[in-house]
Amino acid sequence: MNTPFQIVVCGSIVPDPLQTLEPVTGPSGPSLKNEMMLPAVLDPWAGHALFEAAHLARNTPGSKVWLVSLGPKAKLQQVMMTVAQKVPFELVALDGPSSGFTDSFETAAALAGTIQGIAGLDASRLLLFGGWESASRGAGATLQMIGERLGITEQFLGVDRLRVRDDGTLEILERVEGGKHQVSVCAAPPAVLGWATGDLPEPRNNPQIGMANMRAIMPALQRAKAAPVSNAGLSYASVILPKQQRETRVIRNQPAEEIAREIVAWIGED
Amino acid sequence: MEAILLLAHTEPDGSLAKPALEALAAAKGLGGELMVGLVGGATQAAADQIAGCGAVRFLAVTGPAFAEPRYSTDAAAAEALCRAAGAPLVIAPATSRWARALPGVAYRLGGRVDTHATNIAVAGGGPVVTRWFYRQRMEATLTRTGRPWVVLLEAGCGAAWSGAAGAAAVEAVAVEAPPTRTTVTGVQAPQADEQTIRPDAKLLFVAGAGWTKKQADGATHVAEAESLILGFLRAAKASLGGSKSLVDLSGEGEAVLRFMTHMNQIGQTGATPRHPKGLSACCHGEEPHVVGWRFVNQRRAINLDPNCGWARGKADVLYVADAFEVMRHVNRLLGAPVG
Q1: Which of B116, B139, B172 is a domain's end point?
Q2: pTM of the model
Q3: Average of pLDDT values for A91-113?
Q4: Same structural domain for residues B39 and B126?
Q5: Are residues B296 and B209 in the same domain?
Q6: Do A148 and B265 touch (CB under 8 A)?
Q7: N or C terminus: which one in chain B shows less Cβ crowding within 10 Å?
Q8: What is the pLDDT of residue B254?
Q9: B189 versus A11: which is more confidently predicted?
């Protein structure tokens, strides 16, 4: 019999990957051009973490999932309209920047404080989930600092699988170098898990879940506290787009065998 | 320039791996007083390996408890080394082990951390870090006033240090292993002949979803695609990357390339590996997928579409041809096993 988990997923929003992104620099530092106009999505790795959390909660009766998200309130609302249809969760929102140029240290401080404020959260059953990095800053550092602030020193990064074994211990597979996984066993929560892609497909939209989620999400958004992130001590000398454009030599109507010979010769060159 | 601590962990054989030597070269290049901090089950051999690097101190946390990569023990060891060295700048290779542990260490030290740095240089008398944002779509240089500043350097961005080995005088830093609830039980790796991710390979082969689509005869040829790709990887000792669309097909359980997993995925939501050469076949798409081979130096592509966004302006050479046909010939020339 497994004890229920209390799963807190940290995840924010990022610009839709298909959008063209252009940096601009203002008095408060760099940002994206027309950032508030860009369509946003839930960060892909945070999404994997959320889906894994919901899967674990579904298979462990009595468990509960919170999504703690720091982002501009209006954009969060927009993204939640879609995310809410995927899996059941309770949103805890913070109204602040979701920019890739915000510092992970201060982001972690804001998120940790919010998690500590969740009413009824049992820290001994806590599994802190999130993406192993974001698609905006890509720091891969925020979760560890939240964990430290919460006093959790069982931490895992690049997780692709979590299995609750019959004895209640957690078997965790983390990505390591060379396409391999490190296998660890964690005796019990609390623990921090930064998810890579996991191995679950994205759940289909379920309007009933969406309606149930949205009843709590709208009040949560209204309650969202302001969480400014000042980036103290951090300054950007430049932010540029790569200009590299290659002169592509297009080869048509060349027999396959000849192409193959050229490729093999090229592979063999130093 | 301020004092620098290079943090490195040993490999299972007791040596330092290439990413650690690259980080060492980068640290030396800054010109500040250099100290080395080592963590591992045994550390003397690693210290000896870099004895000639010019470090003024070699510090080490050594013992069986610190042999396995694990957050609690690694963080305790790194924290102790940072405190013992007292260096305002800490440089480490961005290995999976340090990526897991060092952000928490930065917090414990009251410092700041920057990960995935691709360069560190001196400007105006202080360190300046270069890193990418928004999944390799824009590059920034940044500085910080907060110290200690922990910087994790990506592998493959600079030359590795090479120099004389010797006998290093190692100062042991005593650390009591913290209580932990985590036991590392092993490593899962594909069998040798199924290993498709080879970080040190000279060539990255990127397969796109086109391999699973209907071909000129109106049928799919997935089994042959598998055979051709695996045969090529073995013969060329290449690493395999996959486009998101192809990897997602595999994840959805469809009868597609069985060896293709999310770990092979490159691009906006995948990896951006560093290899000297890249060959793509049947890949389609514009940004953001193309960022997958942003750090590949020489690039060639095989595609039936001469206007393919993956290749035009991104590859050095685009062969407008049937990838199946070309790769059959390539494999024959390389002597790849058939089937």
Answers
A1: B172
A2: 0.90
A3: 96
A4: yes
A5: yes
A6: no
A7: C
A8: 60
A9: A11
Q: Are residues B98 and B215 in the same domain?
A: no
Residue B55 counted as domain residue: yes
The DSSP bridge pattern shows strands B203-207 and A13-15 to be unpaired
The verdict on B18 and B156 lying in the same domain is: yes
Please state the ipTM of this predicted complex: 0.94
pLDDT, residue B251, reads 57
When CB atoms are compared, the residue of A44, A183, A233 closest to B269 is A44
Do B182 and A197 count as a contact with CB atoms less than 8 A apart? no
Can you give the CATH number for the domain in which B214 is found? 3.40.50.1220
Q: What is the pLDDT of residue B247?
A: 76
**Amino acid letter for position B1:** M
User: Is residue A246 less than 8 Å (CB to CB) from chain B?
Assistant: yes
Q: Which of the residues A31, A142, A180 would you substitute to probe the B interface, choosing the one with the greatest number of B C-beta atoms within 10 Å?
A: A180
Nearest-by-CA chain A residue for B308: A250
Tally the residues of chain A. Answer: 270
Q: Are B130 and A171 in contact (CB under 8 A)?
A: no
- Residues A185, B185: C-beta atoms closer than 8 Å: yes
Q: The CATH number of the domain where B30 resides is what?
A: 3.40.50.620
- Is residue B339 domain-resident? no
Contact A259 B321 (CB under 8 A): yes
Is residue B76 domain-shared with residue B119, that is, in the same domain? yes
| Amino acid identity, position B105 | V
- Which of the listed residues B108, B139, B172 is the one where a domain comes to its end? B172
Across the interface, do A182 and B187 touch by the CB < 8 Å criterion?
yes
User: Does B149 lie in the same domain as B61?
Assistant: yes
Interface mutation vs chain A, best among B71, B90, B324, most A CBs within 10 Å: B71
Q: Which of A167, A250, A261, A266 to mutate to test the interface with B (most CBs of B within 10 A)?
A: A250
Q: How does pLDDT run across A206-224, given as a tens digit for each residue?
A: 999 999 999 999 999 999 9
Same domain, B125 and B261: no
Rounded to the nearest integer, the mean pLDDT of chain B is 91
CB-nearest to B316 from A186, A249, A256 is A249
The percent of chain B in helix, strand and coil, each rounded to the nearest 5, is 30, 25, 40
B147-186 in b/e burial notation, b at 16+ Cβ within 10 A?
A: bbbbbbbbbbbbebbeeeeeebebeebebeeeebbbebee
Residue B58 has pLDDT above 60, yes or no: yes
Q: Are B59 and B36 in contact (CB under 8 A)?
A: yes
Within a 10 A sphere around the Cβ of A248, how many other Cβ atoms? 19
Residue A14: predicted pLDDT: 96
Beta pairing, strands A234-240 & A249-251: unpaired
Establish if B159 belongs to a structural domain: yes
In a mutagenesis test of the A interface, which of B108, B118, B142, B272 is the best target, namely the one with the most A β-carbons within 10 Å? Answer: B142
> What number of C-beta contacts closer than 8 Å exist between A and B?
272
Domain count, chain B: 2
Taking an 8 Å cut-off on Cβ atoms, the answer to whether B103 and A145 are in contact is yes
Residue B129 sits in which domain range? 4-172
- What is the rounded distance in angstroms from the CA atom of residue A158 to the CA atom of residue B88? 28
Query: Which residue has better confidence, B262 or B54?
Result: B54
Which domains can be identified in chain A, with CATH numbers?
6-226 (3.40.50.620)
Q: How open is the CA angle A131-A134-A136, to the nearest 5 degrees?
A: 165
* Residues in chain A closer than 8 A to B106 (CB atoms): 105, 141, 145
Residue B181 resides in a domain: no
Are B269 and A45 inside 8 Å of each other by CB?
yes
Residues B113 and B218 in one domain: no
